[in-house]
């Protein structure tokens, strides 16, 4: 009888301890902060299926969007890579003297500021930077447990003619190439594989992780394996409807797209020929499909490793890009095509393909991610969290501000108002577009008598919202 009682007691104790261990494990799982997979794509326009386009083949981005919240009106705060990335990762606005161009370094412009990856690292995250996250690989180096970038020339040519031309003095290869190579020949294939390897190691770790993957394409030159070019028939590619520069638009709004002119097969001055323009667009599409495949490989591995339910995934392009819009190429302007960006965020248990028309600035990303992982953003952060939008609430913000050099733009509802200002804030040119009636931005309303009261109000609001440090040295 005593033996039977002892046996029952031991079994009961085992079950009790097992239950306690299971409860403790569940509690630990719930209290562990979520991981973040942070995907940056260089020069990616929101010309994708989930934004209403239907001609670019990007099935992996489409699938991610179907599981995410899609921001239909996300805008970078400055349309140039170095400055945009420093602004986004610090949560701070560009000013006339801060975050200026592609050479921008966060460590130089705002030394000592707590960037988002640094905030995470200070709070127990393993932080990894792969590829082009900041423009300079060693920028904000204290924020990362490791920084990795593929070896080789960043233009990443594979064809001998381009390699030879690119290594000649003061010369570059062509603006695009299609090569019979596998995906891992180019940088983005290598970046995807490094991300996959990191996920496998992070799976075994006890710390939450922030894995940043900065993909290089579709940045110039438009180099991609031939199979991605073969997805498109160039005879079906058309020039944009806005392939014109109206006389009412200030001449300051247009530039010579020197970034593209640097390449060997592009004329130094004048319009791009129609054939070359279509070839460039073809190359851009091929690069989007190529990077889409690489991102898909990473997302598939995240799922295979059963990390999907514990990981926030955010994907963004650093700014928009002109593909002949207003007869312009590249970025470096404040037309909507250069400012509007793709932004999608997947939050396990909260997103499932919703879309929002809330105007969102890139400085809003830092405080939003911080809130999602239960951290307080530092006082230097100027953005506003969009977590209420994720939770289905109506945002109380309906505006954004972007700038480039002398140009500064207020986005307010359907209105895009731009001023070219001097150091003292006085405007010397301006333009206003109403996207409700003029989505292509071809009719500048700023100088029309009937819009002067509107312009006056927008000018006042622009100055109230461009940031307290905007004019400071």
UniProtKB/TrEMBL annotation:
<keyword id="KW-0479">Metal-binding</keyword>
<comment type="similarity">
    <text>Belongs to the sulfatase family.</text>
</comment>
<protein>
    <submittedName>
        <fullName>Sulfatase</fullName>
    </submittedName>
</protein>
<dbReference type="InterPro" id="IPR000917">
    <property type="entry name" value="Sulfatase_N"/>
</dbReference>
<dbReference type="InterPro" id="IPR035874">
    <property type="entry name" value="IDS"/>
</dbReference>
<keyword id="KW-0378">Hydrolase</keyword>
<feature type="domain" description="Sulfatase N-terminal">
    <location>
        <begin position="34"/>
        <end position="374"/>
    </location>
</feature>
<dbReference type="Pfam" id="PF00884">
    <property type="entry name" value="Sulfatase"/>
</dbReference>
<keyword id="KW-0106">Calcium</keyword>
<keyword id="KW-0732">Signal</keyword>
<dbReference type="InterPro" id="IPR017850">
    <property type="entry name" value="Alkaline_phosphatase_core_sf"/>
</dbReference>
